Amino acid sequence: MKILLIGKNGQIGREILKLGSKKNTVVALSKKELDITNWKSTREVITEVGPEVVINGSGYHVVSDCENFPDKAFELNTFALKNLSDICAERKITVVNFSTDKVFDGKKNKPYKEKDEANPLQVYGMSKLAGEIVAHSYCDKAITIRTCGVYGGLEGSRAKKGNFVLMIINESKNKKSLEISSEQFASFINAEDLARITLELLSKKVDSGIYHVVNEGYASWAEFGDTITKIANLPLTVVPKDRLGSFSSVKIPLFAGLDVSKIKSIGIKVKPWQDGLKEYISFLRSQNVL
Ligand SMILES: NC(=O)c1ccc[n+]([C@@H]2O[C@H](COP(=O)([O-])OP(=O)(O)OC[C@H]3O[C@@H](n4cnc5c(N)ncnc54)[C@H](OP(=O)(O)O)[C@@H]3O)[C@@H](O)[C@H]2O)c1
Q: Against a cut of 0.90, is the pTM above it?
């Protein structure tokens, strides 16, 4: 497969590049090399590279920034995606985009399936849902991967300047205890697993559509944090705190677990979230981060 990867330096992009290059030709570009909000260069680069698949690892995804700068959120998460999908449709290219649990309002209180009704509560979720809609209406070969709680690499997410696991490790260096929300539930995934499953979906030539991809199960952020301290043997006590959803000025779904039965039904192996976490912590140990 010839893949054009956008956002090669991102948390997800780095893992797609590492794993994808083993069996495919991957032309990987940073934002400096291709800024997809520039519609003209996006068209020129895709024409020049001639990929069978475009994987879009970019996104404007810091939730509070999206609330403060909605034009930027929609510019990248929706309109750039509309342009990208349009170009891919013209050339019969499969386009893969990463979306989010935050397209849901959290009221289901059970893991969300792909067909559940979306109802985003904040600008980030709205811009990503609008991105899903334009991708699928412009390109009949679009694949949307909704994911949640991604962690990977030594630096984590570029936009978030880290990830939750790295944050807990850093906090343990100068604090004895840390309050973490107990009322907010999510799913999580090791970026390496996310890259593996993304590439498996492509090699299985799955139908265009939406796929939920996380490590199986869900937990409160407090339980996730506590599990990190136990696996990594950190001298930090997690204090579960019910903040009644009031800790942030931005509304987020209190239940954001994703159901992975669709990808399992097509033969994709999905690890429990605890196993994905153990593997990431082993990786961090191997890199002397712990
Ligand atoms: N992280 C999560 O927990 C999570 C959960 C659900 C969904 N997602 C989705 O997954 C995607 C990526 O997440 P991530 O954690 O890998 O993010 P990340 O580490 O911030 O990576 C995003 C990458 O996109 C690049 N980029 C930003 N604007 C661009 C543009 N206009 N044109 C081309 N490239 C651009 C960035 O370039 P620079 O390196 O120059 O900054 C960065 O390398 C996003 O769409 C996000 O909404 C993430």
A: yes
